[in-house]
Amino acid sequence: MFARIKEEIDCVFDRDPAARTALEVVTAYPGFHAIMLHRVSHRLWVGGFKLLARLLSHFGRWMTGIEIHPGAQIGRCFFIDHGMGVVIGETAIIGNGCTLYHGVTLGGTSWDKGKRHPTLGQGVVVGAGAKVLGPIAIGDNARIGSNAVVVNPVPEGATVVGIPGRIVAVNQDAKKPDREAIASKMGFDAYGSTRDMPDPVANAINKMLDHIHGMDRQMESMKEMLHDAGYKVKEQPISELEDCEIDLGVETEAVVGTEKKGS
Predict the structure, then answer these.
(1) Can you give the residue ranges of every domain in the chain?
(2) In degrees to the nearest 10, what's the CA dihedral of 94, 99, 102, 106?
(3) Which of 55, 117, 166, 260 has the fewest CB atoms within 10 Å of its CB?
(4) Helix 50-64 with 30-46: angle, nearest 10 deg
(5) Per residue in 181-201, is it b (16+ CB within 10 Å) or e — as a string?
């Protein structure tokens, strides 16, 4: 049990840079409270204690502003950021590693019994105010933009925006793992600004990262060929990417501060 609680706390640290200590997460994060209460209420629901489960989920709604039906099935490492106004229906199924922002509704479109709420795959991110309605499937690693209304299935890796929701991008890039590895070493997440909507600047940076990775592979191949041919290649000192992390936030603040002084 304690291992699962630690896993939920670590999940908050991974996705919220504002989190500072484990004590802060345990005492002052309503999303964490709502998830912990749901874990208990869901066990009561499955065990047949329906009324007790409903009362506990109602208490959680009153405490956190997050309404999760005890019948909803939620995977591991689920994170609700801010959380006020989040509603998750009875037959909703949420995979591992999903993230919901405030005002999200995973709701139904009919009063019929049976499956009537969405199924989210693994790693899905749903932006603030988005509504995902009906017994539809949202593919792994899909991104749903803020205030979107989604009533149709979403394929794996797709980005959906607008009312009604429309697919604006599908990530089928085989180079993504290489690109993410380089971006991580540089201290820059190229996908951070494109989770909910395409960004031309981020797209340009993505292509630059692909180009850098291609050049690295070509250089390594050339060095191996020269070595096999008997030529000695003089190694030039190259700084490691881990030693040159980029703090874009600090740099931006400095530029803004300079502009304000000059104005």
Answers:
(1) 2-170, 176-262
(2) -20
(3) 260
(4) 170
(5) ebbeebebebbeebbbbebee
State whether the Cα torsion 193-19-86-95 is positive or negative: positive
To the question of pTM greater than 0.85 for the whole model, the response is: no
Which SS3 state, helix, strand or coil, does residue 101 take?
Answer: coil
pLDDT in tens, 163-181: 888 887 666 554 455 555 5
Distance of CA 66 to the CA centre of its chain: 19
Does domain 2-170 fall into CATH 2.30.42.10?
A: no
- Token output for 152: 């149709």
* H helix runs in 16-161, sequence order: 22-28, 30-46, 50-64
Helices (H), the chain: 2-15, 22-28, 30-46, 50-64, 176-185, 200-228, 248-262
- Residues forming a β-bridge with 150: 132
Is the Cβ–Cβ distance between 41 and 57 less than 8 Å?
A: yes
CA angle 187, 190, 194 (to 5 degrees): 145
pLDDT one-digit tens code per residue, 186-199: 444 433 334 444 55
Strands 158-161 and 143-144: parallel
Count of residues making up the chain: 263
